[in-house]
Design a protein that fits this description.
Strand content: under 5%
Structural class: mainly alpha
Oligomer: single chain
Number of helices: 2
Helix content: 25-40%
């Protein structure tokens, strides 16, 4: 089986155009689409947006969290460990 590799940037969601391929009427082909990861976009907040987001004080009334600084540190460590497991 012969393979042809083409790389394109998607110009319209859900659409890929292929043309001028060395294929002939009646010939069967397999098409495999390999996706590159989307670039990460980081959302940043101004101080005012952060204060108005509802994130500040979200743990205030939780009775199961005794020390919120320790809890937050544990969440960060768990998140970093998971990220390392996936990409490390």
């Amino acid at each position: 089986m012969q393979a042809i590799r083409l790389q394109q940037t998607i110009e319209k969601d859900g659409e890929i155009y292929l043309s001028n391929l060395p294929v002939f009427q009646g010939q069967q082909v397999d098409v495999v689409v390999s996706l590159s990861p989307l670039p990460e976009t980081k959302k940043t907040f101004t101080a005012r947006q952060l204060l108005n987001s509802g994130l500040i004080g979200v743990w205030e009334n939780r009775t199961d969290i005794k020390d919120n600084l320790t809890y937050a540190r544990q969440l960060r460590e768990q998140s970093q460990a998971k990220r390392y497991d996936l990409f490390g």
